[in-house]
Specification:
four-stranded antiparallel sheet; 11 strands; about 45% strand; about 0% helix; about 110 residues; globular; mainly beta; seven-stranded mixed sheet
Length: about 110
Amino acid sequence: QVQLQESGPGLVKPSQTLSLTCSVPGGSLIRSSYHWIRQPAGKGLEWVGFITPIGISYGNPALGSRTSISRDTSNNQVTLQLSSVTPEDTAVYYCTRAWESWGQGTQVTVSP
């Protein structure tokens, strides 16, 4: 199994843009889809969006147009950007390759 690794700032201020990176060893970005999932404390998992093997991205409609997912095949990284964050975006964020391999998650807190 591929071990994914999420990284990014642990603290973001309201109205700013959150940017997270998922590092994928082995260069498999063009062979699989990659999803971002989040889980607020005490709540269930919420799908944030994904990018397809050919590089087309889709975001959860519940998040409006705030979600942007891109990839860097040279560096084997998938990036999530979430704009105009609020405290409701506070959660542990995970990346997963086709719902099979997962990262350990990274805590993001939105606070002034």
